[in-house]
Amino acid sequence: MDSDLPEMRQRKIIHIDMDAFFASVEQRDHPELRGKPVAVGGGSERGVVAAASYEARKYGVHSAMPSVTAKRKCPDLIFVRHRFDVYKQVSRQIRDIFEDYTPLVEPLSLDEAYLDVTENRKGMASATEIAEEIRARIWETTQLTASAGVSYNKFLAKLASDQNKPNGLFVIKPAMGPVFAASLPVKKFHGIGPATAAKMNRLGLYTGEDIRNQTLDFLEQHFGVSGRYYYGISRGIDHRQVRPDRERKSIGAENTFFTDTTDFDTAWGFLDPLIDKVWRYVEANDIKGRTVTLKVKFSDFRIITRSRSGLVPVMSKPELTGYVRALLEGVFPVSKGIRLLGVTLSSLGERAENETEQLSLSL
């Protein structure tokens, strides 16, 4: 164990990830869609793909892609409207299966979760056997497939679940962990987005091994507090615990531009898919948020945020869109190019069933 990172008890972690969840539910419930390229989301000119079936993914269609781009890549693409009430019901069935094995379940979204099965309700010694049993029960209960990753920490378990998709299982044992992490391109690391991967590449860091060859001081100098996390995962080390009661305080999305912009219309065009992503999470999880925040990073890396809070929650995507646009208008004109924009909805809580009216935010 590396002397710069504390040693902790080795655990047995499973990451379960449903395969093309929204699209698979639609294909399950509508037999005429099976075997065909399907996209869940708006097929309008300004629509965005929420999920894509594996048949659609073969054409390069993926979530968060503008619908017009998806249709261009796959002319036979079939768009279907989302049914979040159904997805939530199926997700609850899956969650009930997880809880038969362990109370330590940390959902990441409707279709994926971490499970700590070091000590489990079945008294089973093998995490791999538990993962196999859970996948079989999910199929029996929902007629949907799930992929699973098994390892000794969250980072490696999540990477493992992506190795044999769809409908696969992959195990990274303790002896494999450091070697597996070292061999991966940095863009494959969970938690390293395109912008950070590009920065790492500029520093000569292309693989986990390249990161591992750097000192902790070097990584913290270039990546701040995240440097310590990168230092650990490049060695197959991740001490984060599975947190079943994790309370999400905000939901946000951001994107770094390849070219800085000072043009309002260009900046606004980049915000549309971010707003869509945030609102899909709100709908899927039946939550509400009162505070809308716009994040702007300029070409000199200066960051500003602009927020507005209301007495009652934002109740529709058009409302959220209007608030974000007003915040962006308040930033312009700009003297420096914008390199990143982000949208966050906070002050979250569950949506009340009788909550039907909305007061306007004071802008």
UniProtKB/TrEMBL annotation:
<dbReference type="InterPro" id="IPR043502">
    <property type="entry name" value="DNA/RNA_pol_sf"/>
</dbReference>
<dbReference type="GO" id="GO:0005829">
    <property type="term" value="C:cytosol"/>
</dbReference>
<dbReference type="Pfam" id="PF11799">
    <property type="entry name" value="IMS_C"/>
</dbReference>
<feature type="binding site">
    <location>
        <position position="17"/>
    </location>
    <ligand>
        <name>Mg(2+)</name>
    </ligand>
</feature>
<dbReference type="InterPro" id="IPR050116">
    <property type="entry name" value="DNA_polymerase-Y"/>
</dbReference>
<dbReference type="InterPro" id="IPR036775">
    <property type="entry name" value="DNA_pol_Y-fam_lit_finger_sf"/>
</dbReference>
<keyword id="KW-0808">Transferase</keyword>
<dbReference type="InterPro" id="IPR022880">
    <property type="entry name" value="DNApol_IV"/>
</dbReference>
<dbReference type="InterPro" id="IPR043128">
    <property type="entry name" value="Rev_trsase/Diguanyl_cyclase"/>
</dbReference>
<keyword id="KW-0515">Mutator protein</keyword>
<keyword id="KW-0227">DNA damage</keyword>
<keyword id="KW-0234">DNA repair</keyword>
<feature type="binding site">
    <location>
        <position position="111"/>
    </location>
    <ligand>
        <name>Mg(2+)</name>
    </ligand>
</feature>
<keyword id="KW-0460">Magnesium</keyword>
<feature type="site" description="Substrate discrimination">
    <location>
        <position position="22"/>
    </location>
</feature>
<dbReference type="GO" id="GO:0003684">
    <property type="term" value="F:damaged DNA binding"/>
</dbReference>
<dbReference type="Pfam" id="PF00817">
    <property type="entry name" value="IMS"/>
</dbReference>
<dbReference type="InterPro" id="IPR017961">
    <property type="entry name" value="DNA_pol_Y-fam_little_finger"/>
</dbReference>
<comment type="function">
    <text>Poorly processive, error-prone DNA polymerase involved in untargeted mutagenesis. Copies undamaged DNA at stalled replication forks, which arise in vivo from mismatched or misaligned primer ends. These misaligned primers can be extended by PolIV. Exhibits no 3'-5' exonuclease (proofreading) activity. May be involved in translesional synthesis, in conjunction with the beta clamp from PolIII.</text>
</comment>
<keyword id="KW-0235">DNA replication</keyword>
<feature type="domain" description="UmuC">
    <location>
        <begin position="13"/>
        <end position="193"/>
    </location>
</feature>
<keyword id="KW-0239">DNA-directed DNA polymerase</keyword>
<comment type="similarity">
    <text>Belongs to the DNA polymerase type-Y family.</text>
</comment>
<comment type="subunit">
    <text>Monomer.</text>
</comment>
<dbReference type="GO" id="GO:0000287">
    <property type="term" value="F:magnesium ion binding"/>
</dbReference>
<dbReference type="GO" id="GO:0009432">
    <property type="term" value="P:SOS response"/>
</dbReference>
<dbReference type="GO" id="GO:0003887">
    <property type="term" value="F:DNA-directed DNA polymerase activity"/>
</dbReference>
<keyword id="KW-0548">Nucleotidyltransferase</keyword>
<dbReference type="InterPro" id="IPR001126">
    <property type="entry name" value="UmuC"/>
</dbReference>
<keyword id="KW-0963">Cytoplasm</keyword>
<dbReference type="GO" id="GO:0006261">
    <property type="term" value="P:DNA-templated DNA replication"/>
</dbReference>
<feature type="active site">
    <location>
        <position position="112"/>
    </location>
</feature>
<dbReference type="GO" id="GO:0006281">
    <property type="term" value="P:DNA repair"/>
</dbReference>
<keyword id="KW-0479">Metal-binding</keyword>
<dbReference type="GO" id="GO:0042276">
    <property type="term" value="P:error-prone translesion synthesis"/>
</dbReference>
<protein>
    <recommendedName>
        <fullName>DNA polymerase IV</fullName>
        <ecNumber>2.7.7.7</ecNumber>
    </recommendedName>
</protein>
<keyword id="KW-0238">DNA-binding</keyword>
